[in-house]
Design goal:
Helices cover about 70% and strands about 0% of the residues. The protein is mostly helical.
């Protein structure tokens, strides 16, 4: 049992060092030698447990996805007693709240989702499955109470909102006016974006805007 505990401690030491490195640097900037050198880990111990950088990166990505999924599930369960639109806005902001608390996991998440190493993209996609399923279940519950446009099914709208949610943070950051940086201002930006996402930006075809 003592040997197993030592192994577990060694693995955790390496994992925590990898979290630190991938949480501060891009995938390309991290090396096994750098992790060892900056964190006092012998190369012998490193390569005894992990054969390459990819193993460590995927481990950090998987752990980040799992911690994020648990946070989303807990936070979503607390969204009660509000309007459907307010619940959607708050759900869209859950990741931002999480990343405010865990900035290094934010870097890992963005490196995995926005700048994934091409040879790991398939594995990263598979690791993200629990979060996608969690998002979809949440939106399915909300959409069941929403008055949808004719011709759209609840399944279509649920998938659409889940797709929008996965890219919403990047869109909000790009959309925000210059000088908007704090979380409160970003929430106001989110409200504007959500309004346009759900209700569009064009007047209906009966509008004079469509008449010559």
């Amino acid at each position: 049992m003592e040997q197993e505990e030592r192994k577990a401690r060694s693995r955790n030491t390496i994992f925590q060092a990898a979290l630190e490195e991938f949480g501060c640097r891009s995938y390309d900037e991290v090396t096994m030698e750098g992790i060892c050198g900056r964190h006092g880990i012998s190369k012998g111990m490193m390569y005894h447990y992990y054969s390459n950088k990819d193993d460590l990166f995927l481990l950090c990505v998987q752990d980040t996805f799992q911690v994020l999924a648990a946070y989303i599930e807990q936070s979503a369960a607390e969204l009660t007693g509000q309007s459907v639109l307010e619940n959607i806005k708050e759900f869209f902001m859950i990741r931002e709240y999480f990343f405010q608390l865990h900035p290094k996991r934010k870097t890992i998440f963005e490196n995995a989702m926005l700048r994934p190493p091409k040879h790991l993209a398939g594995q990263i996609w598979a690791l993200r499955t629990p979060i996608r399923e969690l998002d979809l279940r949440f939106f399915e519950q909300l959409v069941a109470h929403m008055p949808l446009r004719l011709g759209l099914s609840q399944e279509q709208v649920s998938r659409y909102l889940a797709c929008v949610e996965s890219n919403f943070r990047a869109e909000a950051i790009q959309y925000r006016p210059q000088g908007v940086h704090d979380l409160h201002d970003l929430m106001e930006v989110a409200e504007e974006l959500l309004d346009m996402t759900l209700f569009g930006v064009l007047q209906g075809p009966e509008s004079t805007a469509y008449k010559e």
